[in-house]
Amino acid sequence: MLAQFGFGVFVLTFLLALFSVGGAVLGYFSKSDRWVETARRAMLLTFPLITLAVLTLTYLLVTGHYELQYVYSVTSNDMPFYLKITALWGGQAGSLVLWSWLMSAFASAVTLRKWERDRELLPWVIVVTSITLAFFLSLSILYENPFARWWQTAAGEFVPHMFAPAGAIPVSPADGQGLNPLLRHPGMIIHPPMLYLGFVAFVIPFAFAIAALVTNRSDDRWIRLTRRWTLVAWLFLSLGLVLGMRWAYDVLGWGGYWGWDPVEISALMPWLTGTAFLHSVMIQEKRGMFKQWNMLLIILTYALVIFGTFLTRSGVLSSVHAFAQSAIGPMFFAFIGITFIISVALLIYRWRDLRAEVEMTSLFSREALFLLNNLLFMGVLIVCFWGVIFPLISELVTGQKVTVGPPFYQRANAPLFGALMALMGIAPLSAWGKSTFQTLGRALWKPSIPSAIVPVVLAILGVRNWIALVGFTLVAFVVFVTMFEFWRGARVRQKRNNENFLVALWQLAGRNRRRYGGYLIHLSMVVMAIGILGMELYQTTTQKTLAVGENIQIAGYTLRYDSLAQFPYTDGRIVTRAVVSVFRGGKYLGELYPRYDYYPNGQPMTIAGVRSTLADDLYVVLVNWENVSVAQAPFKVYHNPLVNWLWIGSLMFVLGFLVAAWPEREEEEREGKI
Amino acid sequence: MQKSPQTGNQGRAKFIVGGLLILAAVIYLIVSATQANAEYFMTVNELRSKGNSLVGRSLRISGAVVGTTIQYDPRTMNLTFDIAHVPGDNAAIEMGGGLAAVLHAAVTDPTRMRLTIVYNGPKPDLLRDEAQAIVTGHLGEDGIFHADELLLKCPTKYQEAIPSQVVSGN
After folding, report:
1. What is the pLDDT at residue A338?
2. Which value, to the nearest 10 degrees, does the dihedral of the CA atoms of residues A123, A52, A101, A664 take?
3. Which site among A468, A550, B19, B110 is 20 to 30 Å from B157 CA-CA?
4. CB contact under 8 A, A411 and B125
């Protein structure tokens, strides 16, 4: 009964979304404020309705209504309460519901606040968000219905269906399959919603961009109105990516955090265009340039967001993430194709109105360096896109299936990432407008000197890998430039206002949050780069089958296999846990507990024992093998130098973001006056 | 659009040249990285028909695991087994009655082409008779395939979810 109710609410919301599209278009063309207002109210009503459907589904999940296929596939009796709630996004149907829910929440937030101010653009914001919402709701209604239940047909087969197929009888399993154990991890509980928050929030700047195109507003109003949405979208997308990396590191047990899996790449691609967009909108705000380019970037970001949702959820590409095969592929492709073509056509139609107000003159000006930054991000995007579609292209052209693995991405992207790091150091020192090689050179030489010491010191310490030498030099360069900028700004304040240096530093960042927050984010990026360089260049691994008392050596550490225990855990899984002692230079450092768990449904899960320090991680895996015993247990050990800096960098990133995005009082006042 | 004497065509030319240089660099990176890291996905028959011309190349081969040939030494972690040819495209697999039937036919047919795989590492539990193996690595001069990576699928484990404990009625 509840399931039918939830489904009914979905159908109603879908119709309401379509109605608000029609109302907004009608209101715009007939210049009827009443129709626009009606469309806005219809839009606003979708949020409580989808909330109702989500609550219904959550109730069904928590109370174990296993007669529903979705509930059956993601929950089971032995799962704790909080996991039954998070099972809402544990499968394909549920995550599409989450998408719709977020979409209507964000669209409502836009149309509720400051409605009067944005009156001119809002009909088209409603059109874009409602069409996107209607699309996702139609997927839930037609293909991935979370409210479909199990039926047994006359032929004895079990099929999920919303309504009774002819001659079928309803069936109710007593227990469900349960959430895939790999997904029962804190990182996995928040990783998908974070990613989705980022994905969906990017729809808002896109909607305003389209509204600006339709209404022919060629100024930067749409950008300023959505600046905070863009920042929030970017924050959540970044956090989603980092949490996914952390989850992979903790749970997948292969010693790494990023495998250049197509699904990872599909989440990275909108981040690349989004990051480029975040940078280039500053040029439009400051100089009135890059208008067409910004439009193109946000259109691309929207297409890649939908594409990313599709890739993660369709099962077209085989990967650890794509745990479902589904019929929604053609729908997604049609939607991406149609929205992309219409958006680009609109952009071409308005192309001449979006010309730059000033022309770029110097190759060494800040705007030129921002352009270079954008081109490099596009370069990484092209590399990623090529890697994903290459197998399809080569099969079409030569009939031979050829794939490219992680080495392809590493090799092609490393120089681009290196250039981006160099830019992070150079760009803050460049000037707007006319800037010459000489003026830039004068600003650069001071921080270059301490950076040049780094490779010399590293070489003396025995580092011979040239990628490491270049990489760490660039890291040092960015750190020195950024600290130099902070120091210089604070000194000026200190002298002028006669303040304490620390007070001056605090005031400086407070007065110009966007700039200094941005610097902090740059710092966090190079700190993350330290971890990535350490892992990519210096990770070592070894494996050995040990009997109790035997040792394995790696990177100066000695690990001794001490004991093995097997016991059941409260939720029914069987835990096999080894105790390993870690020594270095004869000194005892502690114990590690690598283990693997077998869930009642036969799913295994490997949890590494990790000893983590700022210098390195020792990552020990007890390999899941049927004959593991006291006499023979296979171990795989990874030595991951510097990997902790990756996580430290991501925390710094959040800090930098808070500085950059915290509302500025003056800015709010200014916005109020527009 | 503003045009001062210094800007204009000459000013624009250096940006176009700069843009083209970056484009060329990206294309070079993609082409060279693709050439160096392409992995060819093949069936056992395709590999065998090419003889030794593919020695040393990065390859990805799929086939059916022949259970009787599995040898594993837990001390050294040396693992060897044979895989038998299975067709590569999905249509042929559907024609053969689904993946499980195709794998069974491949293993029980003694005339099928086979390939010996050598791998060093823990033996995966899914490595069983009639499992589908996708191995990544390279072919040695001796005709033995040296795998760096094993991916295994047991068709029975991946069948569509069907309620196991069914209580009839509602």
Report:
1. 96
2. 70
3. B110
4. no
- Residue B40: CB atoms within 10 A of its CB come to 18
* Residues 6 or more apart in contact with residue A179 via CB below 8 angstroms: A74, A75, A76, A79, A83, A86, A87, A90
Residues A639-664: tens digit of each pLDDT: 999 999 999 999 999 999 988 887 76
Q: Which residues, at least 6 apart from B50, have a Cβ–Cβ distance to it below 8 Å?
A: none
Residue B112, number of CB atoms within 10 A of its CB: 19
The tokens describing A541, both together, are: 């691994």
How many CB pairs below 8 A link A and B?
144
Interface contact flag, A404 B40, Cβ < 8 Å: no
Tell me the per-residue pLDDT of A335-376, one tens digit each, with 9 for 90 and over.
999 999 999 999 999 998 888 888 777 788 888 899 999 999
Interaxial angle between packed helices A33-62 and A122-142, expressed in degrees from 0 to 180 and rounded to the nearest 10: 30
CA–CA separation, A383 vs A278, rounded Å? 20
Residues 106-165 of A with CB under 8 A from B: 150, 152, 158
Q: Which residue of A has its CA nearest to B41?
A: A401
A408/B125 touch (CB, cutoff 8 Å), yes or no: no
- Res A169 pLDDT > 80: yes
A627: confidence class by pLDDT, cuts 50, 70, 90: confident
Burial class, A395, CB count within 10 angstroms (exposed 0-12 / middle 13-18 / buried 19+): middle
Residue A382 is predicted with a pLDDT of 95
| pLDDT per position as a tens digit, A579-608 | 999 999 889 999 999 998 887 766 778 889
ipTM of the complex as predicted: 0.81
Which chain A residues touch B169 with a CB distance below 8 Å?
169-172
pTM of the model as a whole: 0.89
Across the range A399-414, mean pLDDT stands at 87
Q: Which residues of B touch A361 (CB under 8 A)?
A: 6-7, 11
Closest CA to A545 of A530, A523, A563, A561: A561
Residue with tokens 């921080």: A447
Residues 13-42 in B contacting A (C-alpha not used; CB under 8 Å): 14-15, 18-19, 22, 25-26, 29-30, 32-34, 36-42
Determine which of A411, A606, A621 to mutate to test the interface with B (most B C-beta atoms within 10 Å): A411
Write out pLDDT tens, residues A193-227. Answer: 999 999 999 999 999 999 999 998 888 889 988 88
Question: Got the DSSP string for A380-405?
Answer: HHHHHHHHHHHHHHHHHHHS-EEEE-
Residue A268: its pLDDT value, please? 95
**How far A660 CA lies from chain B's nearest CA (Å)?**
30
User: How distant, in Å, are the alpha carbons of A32, A160, A218, A277 from that of A210?
Assistant: 20, 39, 11, 15
Residues of A in contact with B79 (CB under 8 A): none
